Amino acid sequence: MVAVFTALWLGILTSFSPCPLATNLAAVGWLAGAGAKPVRTLAAGALYSLGRALAYALLGGLLTASLLSAVGTARFLQHDLNRILGPLLIVTGMVLLDLLPFRMPALDLETKGRWLVRHGRGSGAFLLGALFALSFCPVSAALFFGSLLPLATAEASPWILPAIYGVGTALPVLILAAMLAFGARWVGKAFQRIEMVERGVRRLTGVLFVGAGLYLSWVYVLEPGLLAG
């Protein structure tokens, strides 16, 4: 149950991160079009959200399943994963706290997005969601590769936890779509408030990750070394 909640929370935090949040808001508004009916806006947002959720779920599931099917994985899970997980959580927490900035390769999303939109509001919205989901920024990459994949591997859950993570990334997008459909004039103010809340929540999560990483590193790396010495 803890792993399920953690995967869901990581997905929500990913979608609320600055880069994905701005992209989601722009993409849903772009797909809805000026003067579109609320039902059309919600439909575009739902398809876009579904594309994001499935992309994360499939990528996470395939990567986790590959790790679990590799030779020697059982021994790795039993003896080595906790040793690696501590430092990995510390690095992820430092990224969330902006203490360890790094750059991700830039992609021409605008050109690809325009091409997808021209091919229909339905399939275009779905494919655009999948495309933007796979265009990782530093925070989303740290949460996905540094937290979700180790969690899914440790729990031997190649599909369920990545799927729950995908659902978590889609929930805020659906909220944004509903806001655009029924209260577009409030989106700007709400977006600013979400940014403020996200900043505090991300920093709190970063502190927790660093704390958990330090604890795991002490229990599984430093303390055994001291006892052995």
Task: Give your account of this protein's structure.
The protein has nine helices and no strands. The chain has 229 residues and is mainly alpha-helical. The chain is globular. The chain has helices at 2-16, 18-32, 38-69, 73-96, 109-118, 121-133, 138-154, 160-182, 187-228. The two termini are 38 Å apart.
Please outline the helices and strands.
Elements: H1 2-16, H2 18-32, H3 38-69, H4 73-96, H5 109-118, H6 121-133, H7 138-154, H8 160-182, H9 187-228
Helix pairs in contact: 1-7, 1-8, 2-3, 2-6, 2-8, 3-6, 3-7, 3-8, 4-7, 4-9, 5-6, 7-8
Report low-confidence residues grouped into runs of 5 or more: 104-113
Work out the strand percent. Answer: under 5%
Based on secondary structure, the structural category is mainly alpha
Please bin the fraction of helical residues. Answer: over 70%
Order of helices and strands: HHHHHHHHH
Shape: globular
Number of strand elements: 0
Average residue-wise pLDDT: 75
Rg for CA atoms = 19 Å
Measured distance between first and last alpha carbons: 38 Å
Strand count, sense and barrel status of the largest sheet are: none
